[in-house]
Input
Amino acid sequence: MITINENYRKLHASYLFSDIAKRVADFQEQNHSGETLIKLGIGDVTLPLPAACIRAFQDGVNEMAQEESFHGYGPENGYLFLRERIAEFDFSEQGVTVSPDEIFISDGAKCDTGNIQEIFSGDVRVAVPDPVYPVYVDTNVMAGRTGSFQDGRYQNLLYLESTEENGFIPLPAPDLKADLIYLCFPNNPTGAVASKDQLKAWVDYARQNKALIIFDAAYEAFIRNPEVPHSIYEIEGAREVAIESRSFSKKAGFTGTRCAYLVIPRECRAFDAAGAEVSVRELWTRRHSTKFNGVSYPVQRAAAGIYTPEGKRQTRELVDYYLENARMIAEGMKSAGYTVYGGENSPYLWIKTPRPSWETFSLILNKAAVVTTPGAGFGLSGENYIRISAFNNRDCVRQAIDRIVSRVSLD
Ligand SMILES: *Cc1c(COP(=O)(O)O)cnc(C)c1O
Output
């Protein structure tokens, strides 16, 4: 008899995006005004790939057309030409030491942050932020590290509350007993950024408690404040206790092209049942080379295009475009009386609302024909917030804000 992994039954179907879709469909049916719907909901980019990436992508495809330059299976951890550029421009140039053989190219940060847990024991205690990017939670539920879902939370999962009081940056409480800790800065959904001191508190915690941090830096390219750390490896001692995830999705419009990477330093350690140190990098090398056959050659060429002088300028312009959208949204929402967080080193605005998230979501949908995301969908601590995404074209953003400001009153 073929039986199923019962842990999948524990998954609380996240109705978030399907609920949103249903409410949007209902609205569209009754919307006779002819006004177009503007989507500032899900976090997908809208601008095309930078020209430098397109050129490199096309060159890569052309090479595949000739026997002399054709590429078959590549290295599972990615081509050296890409790993060398990453090590130089994303790290060395920023004063951080990461070597090319500590970098693993993949087809996405979703897969990386979702898959990494399988190299750790089934009984490690897991801590996740609340509100949270759901991948960290659901992959640990599937692996059986949690109990059932009750009153909005999984049993046996530790929730790190990100609230207005702590500036949406949870710090390790003295009684916290976690082995695997997920952190994401700049944060999705709150847009919060952590300072060096705040990251240091986590690195120190991990060192003292033999824990490990998964640091999701998918939005690193949006950091403009020079005080804000770009990498967890800017913190002393982090190489032993942290894995960093980066992605080209938001930085260079690769959501549909697929390329990302994990950094696992040589010193990064976990422990075996007898308490002896084990190299996390070696474990991941074993896992990655068994279950993954590498990212396509033209895609890795396209990603390397980001690190050319034109590519650097073009990706910066692309990110600046979304940051300007974010600035406009923040200004508009503040003028309408809302309390606005995020949006400065991040494409997301986290907006406090006087009503439950879903009510605010419906109000904005029905009065302004604008789609946002209810904060409660990201966790209990997201209640009374909505997330507005800056990923859209300038005219749509301008129009959306005009409509909200003129039609949706706060009380
Ligand atoms: C968008 C996003 C990613 C990127 O995922 P990809 O699979 O690389 O497209 C990772 N983490 C967070 C928090 C995100 O919002």
Notes: The radius of gyration is 22 Å.
